[in-house]
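Weekly structure sync, notes
Attendees: PL (lead), two postdocs, one rotation student
Agenda item 3: pending single-chain targets
PL asked that the sequence for the first pending target be pasted directly into the notes so everyone works from the same version. It is reproduced below exactly as submitted, 212 residues in total.
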Amino acid sequence: MKDGKLPNPMTIHPIAGYDKEIYVKPTLKNPNIIVGDFTYIADSDFESHVTHLYEWNGDKLIIGKFCQIAAGVEFVMNGANHQMNAVSTFPFYTLEGWDMDAPLKKDLPLKGDTVIGNDVWIGQNAVIMPGVHIGDGAIIGANAVVASNIAPYTINVGNPCRTIKKRFDDKMIELLEKFCWWDKSIEEINKLIPILTSSDLEMVRRELKKRK
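Predicted structure, written out during the meeting:
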């Protein structure tokens, strides 16, 4: 317990006297945005970073626990997509005065929900495109444009975003995925911090095997 306080996922400002970093979950108003405990953004308004999320498309943005989202990150949702299987991509149906009904969903390039795992770090000004799935523990570099799925515990950079390496070997990644430290109680996580933050990966591997 630090400063006599337990971590509280419903605290908006987890750094006393600083309003440019917030836990996202307690600020949400849109029911199609679902964010887990202790995920934060380096800003004071998360929903302004989610664009083109329109109710009629039915898509959701789902983000896990303990994610770290830097300033300037944008989540582009399916409403940004235009019809691409016709001569014109112009969205006449959205603008006043044009005699066009909305196209059928099958005629729009809808890509489903955008799903971000747990303990994902997304660097400054990265853009996450519609329907992308990012695995647990992944790192997304600054200014990356993520248009395809990202595997767990990988480091990814660039436009288009590409995986440059795995963070750990396959056995370690499997251990971490089974351990799911983010689903444990606050008390358990506090006790695990020396393991979760150690650079001695062999020690970490031994401790995870003991606790699985």
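Discussion points:
- The helical segments are 170-179, 186-196, 201-211.
- Residues 186-196 form the longest helix (11 residues).
Action: rotation student to compare against the earlier draft before next sync.
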